[in-house]
């Protein structure tokens, strides 16, 4: 039987390398769709937890724990740290981390190690699919070369290669896997079609076949685009502050114009994708990409802008105590990776301030808002968590040392704040209006 036939009748055996927030939900969903799946992770404690039907991923992930228990209990998903378990697989899917260095260059150490290890045990004619986000050209040049060296065979003959970039979002891992369209980049059009058939077992949205490099450009391009969009919103907000307008009203009216979609100015851009993927895109060319670098610089400067607004509100950072609302990188999330709040805290502490942070979702930051706010010289909103809408500003004003509020996500009722005696500043609003 051909690989396509084995995929069609679900007799194809699927392997995963990397059982994190990308690989584990994918392995569970393929197993739940009726395919035999083996998952490999080098972290033995993670493997042991999964074998005990425990979910080793933090945060609330609807359905994932029950699907994991079901597929491990039924033996549809087997997990191990032994890479040789992949020797029986028809398809091996790689979901390992692809971070960037401090100089913004990609670091492929984990990916190369995984690819070479897989190549050392890969069955004849098997399909290797990279889900990790990589720079344009990486699969066609680096990954193919690593596999040809490890298998001592040629791409398209000894093995086949695909790139199906992940489109996960913490908090919606299962829903995104099912509902987000995917791009299936194949080392040949036939392989791209085979990938489309494979992912159709799990993905209810479209799976668009294309080539390896196009798939890489789609993923890094879509997130670089979002970063530029956010940077534009942050710059437009800055103009509104000096021009005496309200960014939210300007944004609303601009977006009435067909084809316009100004996003939201904010206290910074964090997370696992947007801060990294623009640099992965840029690494795909020798050309300078000033727009990509400029957008990153604009967004990375927003935490410091929040500090400037505290100073503009009349609070000198040296010796001050600042109460910050929000540690996570995103509203209603417990994910604090690359959190803009970390940058704000560093900026403020470097200027002599003491900073206390509240966050109802992030472990270690759940003290009450009152505890964090009491005695502080300013209240700074970094994340648009629902709990920060409709705050009792009279009560908070009574326990603050100074009634100063700086809103980086436009969730504070500024009229109520001023009525409660606050000096307020907000991103995208002039001092007189905020
Ligand atoms: N942010 C703004 N202003 C905005 C939107 C976001 O300041 O208008 C900030 C957020 O506060 C956060 C950061 O940018 O700190 C990233 O926010 P995000 O909404 O882009 O959320 P992410 O990082 O989870 O991005 C994911 C990405 N999805 C995948 O990679 C599969 C991204 O491609 C999606 O566009 C995004 O979710 C989405 O649309 O929700």
Ordered list of secondary-structure elements with their pairings:
Layout lengths: L2 H6 L4 E5 L5 H10 L3 E5 L3 H8 L12 H10 L3 E4 L10 E4 L14 H13 L4 E5 L7 H14 L7 E5 L9 H7 L2 E5 L2 H11 L7 E5 H32 L3 H8 L22 H6 L7 H11 L1 H11 L8 E5 L14 H11 L3 E5 L10 H5 L4 E4 L11 H7 L4 E4 L6 H6 L3 E4 L8
Parallel strand pairs: 1-2, 1-4, 2-3, 4-5, 5-6, 7-8, 9-10, 9-11, 11-12, 12-13
Antiparallel strand pairs: 6-7
The structure holds ligand SAJ.
Ligand SAJ binds next to helix 9.
Protein model, in words:
By secondary structure, the protein is an alpha/beta fold. It has two domains: 3-209, NAD(P)-binding Rossmann-like Domain (Rossmann fold, 3-Layer(aba) Sandwich); 302-433, Rossmann fold (3-Layer(aba) Sandwich). The chain contains 17 helices and 13 strands. Helix 2 packs across helix 4 and helix 9 packs across helix 12 (290-300). The model has no long low-confidence stretch (mean pLDDT 97). The chain binds ligand SAJ.
Name the hetero compounds present. Answer: ligand SAJ
Spatial strand order of the main sheet:
3-2-1-4-5-6-7-8
- CATH architect. name of the largest domain: 3-Layer(aba) Sandwich
Broad shape: elongated
Query: What name does CATH use for the topology of the largest domain?
Result: Rossmann fold
Helical content class? 40-55%
Mean pLDDT: 97
Low-confidence stretches: none
* Overall tally of structural domains: 2
Query: How do the helices and strands follow one another from N- to C-terminus?
Result: HEHEHHEEHEHEHEHEHHHHHEHEHEHEHE
Count every helix, treating DSSP H or I runs of 4 or more residues as helices.
17
Q: Assign the CATH class of the largest domain.
A: Alpha Beta
Main β-sheet, in a few words? 8 strands, mixed
CATH level-four homologous superfamily name of the largest domain: NAD(P)-binding Rossmann-like Domain
């Amino acid at each position: 039987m051909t690989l396509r036939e084995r995929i069609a009748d679900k007799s194809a055996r699927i392997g995963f390398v990397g059982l994190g927030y990308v690989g584990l939900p994918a392995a569970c969903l393929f197993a739940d769709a009726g395919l035999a799946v083996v998952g490999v992770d080098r972290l033995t404690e993670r493997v042991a937890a999964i074998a005990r039907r425990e979910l080793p991923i933090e945060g609330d992930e609807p359905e994932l724990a029950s699907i994991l228990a079901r597929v491990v209990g039924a033996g549809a998903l087997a997990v191990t740290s032994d890479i040789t378990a992949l020797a029986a697989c028809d398809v091996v899917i790689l979901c390992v981390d692809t971070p960037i260095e401090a100089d913004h260059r990609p670091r492929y150490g984990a990916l190369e190690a995984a690819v070479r290890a897989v190549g050392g045990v890969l069955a004849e004619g098997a399909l290797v699919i990279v889900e990790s986000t990589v720079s344009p050209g990486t699969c066609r040049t680096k990954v193919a070369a690593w596999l040809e060296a490890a298998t001592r065979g040629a791409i398209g003959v000894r093995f086949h290669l695909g790139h199906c970039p992940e489109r996960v979002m913490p908090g919606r891992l299962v829903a995104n896997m099912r509902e987000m369209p995917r791009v299936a980049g194949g080392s040949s059009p036939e392989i791209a079609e085979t990938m489309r058939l494979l992912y159709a077992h799990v993905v209810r949205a479209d799976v668009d076949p294309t080539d390896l490099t196009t798939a890489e450009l789609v993923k890094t391009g879509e997130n670089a685009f979002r970063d530029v969009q956010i940077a534009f919103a942050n710059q437009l907000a800055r103009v509104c502050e000096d021009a005496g307008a309200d960014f939210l009203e300007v944004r609303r009216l601009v977006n009435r114009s067909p084809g316009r979609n100004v996003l939201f100015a904010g206290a910074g851009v964090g997370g696992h994708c947007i801060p990294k993927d623009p640099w992965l895109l840029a690494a795909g060319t020798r050309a300078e990409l000033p727009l990509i670098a400029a957008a990153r610089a604009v967004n990375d400067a927003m935490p410091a802008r929040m500090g400037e607004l505290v100073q503009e509100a009349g609070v000198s950072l040296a010796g001050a105590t600042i109460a910050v609302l929000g540690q996570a990188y995103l509203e209603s999330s417990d994910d604090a990776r690359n959190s803009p709040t970390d940058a704000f805290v560093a900026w403020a502490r470097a200027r002599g301030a003491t900073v206390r942070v509240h966050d109802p979702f992030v472990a270690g930051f759940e003290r009450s808002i009152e505890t964090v706010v009491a005695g502080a010289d300013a209240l700074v909103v970094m994340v648009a968590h629902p709990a920060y809408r409709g705050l009792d500003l009279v009560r908070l004003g009574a326990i603050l040392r100074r009634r100063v509020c700086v809103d980086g996500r436009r969730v504070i009722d500024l009229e109520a704040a001023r009525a409660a005696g606050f000096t307020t500043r907000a991103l995208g609003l002039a001092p007189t209006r905020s």
